[in-house]
Amino acid sequence: MKISNYLACPECDLLLRRNTPVVGEKAHCPRCRYLLHHPRTDSIARTFALSLTGLFLLFPANLLPIVGIKVLGNAHDGTLWSGVMTLFDEGMWAVALVVFLASVLFPILSIVLSLLISGHLYFNRANRHLSLWLRTLQHIDEWAMLEVYLLGIIVACVKLASMAELKFGLGLTAFVLLLLVTVMLASNFDSTLFWQRIEQLNSHEKK
Amino acid sequence: MKKNNTAMTQRLYRCHDCGKLTPKSATSTHCSRCGSTVHARLPHSFQRTLALLISGFALYIPANLFPIMTVTRLGVGEPHTILGGIIALIHGNMLPIAMLVLVASILVPLLKLLGLTLLLLCVHYRWQVNAKLWTRMYRIIAFVGRWSMLDIFMISILVSLVNLGGVAQVIAGSAATAFAAVVVLTMFAAKSFDPRLIWDVQN
């Protein structure tokens, strides 16, 4: 029995003969219905293009004001950073840290890592850090929560709408676009393919 | 019933990070493809999940009892608990948003804690269950956890926007730290639980 012809389901451990589906088809575990593999068209090229787009959007989304309010003549703008800083100044450093990681650091890291990995794979460059990058990307992915943050913005705006005049900044547009890019990144990402390509590249390097 | 062929019965380890199968051997405990340590099951999955879960339950109490934020208007402060914020939304005729916050901040963390407890009980007492259904429950628990951060993000936006000195100010309360900790702890708990344990205890 050749091990590479087999795979195991990560959630029920069933041993299966590897059967790579074509693009557009999905492979589910027959026992627990786990989605084993869902190949995408040009996964590497699309990941490269999308993460490059995301890299450019990171700057306006993080630096420009997202929402502003005006109460009794006092205007105030809020960026992704200002929430973190205000929480920190109030002594809520643990909450500030969680917000910073989930809304700023992990989204940035995940875009940068996607760009690095897909760039190397797209141009067939081997790098001994590739597996480390992909492992890190897989682990932090769950902690980047831009979509939840957008929902938080919406709820906050609804709460404020009655007591203040709201102004939506260019940062919000960039933020929504960045969110779309990360969602598209996630849906075009084929981790099975990425791991296979990394293995190929690194084995050529060793020879 | 024919016993299914699993990676464990064939003495194979599935790498947690990249999925490659490695035969069990005395010499190598690392995945040849990505270098991470391989195990048959997530190490100490039961104990870790249990510990994180107990901490989650303990912090769920202050998270709901203490004020999550204080809204000051023209010098008059009004502390809000999570439930108080939802009631304020209902009074303000914003029922859909109130429902959203209710689900994300109260129901999801509670159901997550209870669901993971059930999963641990199932594994510990070797309950014979419909493993497919229970695995699906695990998947839902692992998926919805992140949405509870909604309240925390909302507070972070409110404190930075409503920061107008005497006119109006929002200050985060002590429950915010407890609540953020509950969300993070339950996310870690879901991550450290290995759903293959459900299948292992079925005969």
Describe the protein's architecture and organization.
The complex is a heterodimer of chains A (207) and B (203). Chain A is of the alpha+beta class. Chain A has 2 domains: 1-39, no CATH class; 42-206. Helix content of chain A is 59%, strand content 12%. Chain A is built from 7 helices and 7 strands. Chain A has helices at 43-63, 80-89, 93-122, 130-140, 146-161, 170-188, 191-206, and strands at 6-8, 15-17, 27-28, 35-37, 67-71, 74-78, 165-168. In chain A, the strands form 3 sheets. In chain A, strands 6-5-7 form a 3-stranded antiparallel β-sheet. A two-stranded antiparallel sheet of chain A has the order 1-2. In chain A, α1 (43-63) runs antiparallel to α6, α2 runs antiparallel to α3 (93-122) and α3 packs across α4. The radius of gyration of chain A is 21 Å and the shape is elongated. Chain A starts with 5 loop residues before the first strand and ends with a helix. Chain B has 203 residues and is mostly helical. Chain B has 2 domains: 1-40, no CATH class; 44-200, no CATH class. In chain B, the strands form 2 sheets. Chain B has a 3-stranded antiparallel β-sheet. In chain B, α1 runs antiparallel to α6. The longest helix of chain B has 30 residues, at 95-124. The model of chain B has no long low-confidence stretch (mean pLDDT 91). Classes of the chains: A alpha+beta (207), B mainly alpha (203). At the A-B interface, β1, β5, β6, α2 and α3 of A face α3, α4, α5, β5 and α6 of B.
Summarize the helices and strands and which ones pair or pack.
The complex is a heterodimer of chains A (207) and B (203).
Chain A: E1 6-8, E2 15-17, E3 27-28, E4 35-37, H1 43-63, E5 67-71, E6 74-78, H2 80-89, H3 93-122, H4 130-140, H5 146-161, E7 165-168, H6 170-188, H7 191-206
Antiparallel strand pairs in A: 1-2, 3-4, 5-6, 5-7
Chain B: E1 12-14, E2 21-23, H1 45-65, E3 69-73, E4 76-80, H2 82-91, H3 95-124, H4 131-144, H5 150-161, E5 168-172, H6 174-192, H7 196-200
Antiparallel strand pairs in B: 1-2, 3-4, 3-5
